[in-house]
Amino acid sequence: GSGKLTLTSAYNMNGGKSVVILVKGDLWISGTITVPTNSTLLFSVSGNIHVDSSVGEVSTLSTPDIQGWYSADGSFIVENKGTGIKDLRLNVAGAIVVNAGLLGGTFQNKRDLYEDDIICPAVSIQERPDFVLNAPGFLLNSRRIWREVAP
User: Fold this and answer.
1) Distance from C-alpha of 43 to C-alpha of 100, rounded to nearest angstrom
2) From CA 12, how far away is CA 142, in angstroms rounded?
3) pLDDT for 101-116, tens place per residue?
């Protein structure tokens, strides 16, 4: 079926694993996601990915809150606490893909750090090259079609 998958608490992945989670619908992330350096985690979502306003750090910290690869056919939406309330900084370690389904999805950062906006971003994305080194082969294979076209 389809619907929504909600991760309501912290998820600490075991080492030495490669995990692919397919979601037919939306994914709601309401807790931290930790992936060790000898593992890979990929979420592939047919809808949108939402990150709850409770996931994050105070603005001066850069500790990763969610780690992994996140691919949405639709949008990746970083939710806020509401107008007039200072939000947490979201730190992502990995990669984010939006509009994978070519349906017009976007990256939406709804967070506001108010006075701290000048000193740091509300959303930070850090590279995790170890994900590529540990990824299963089927994630790394790409199909190419070549054809010679006369000028």
Assistant:
1) 12
2) 29
3) 998 999 999 999 999 9
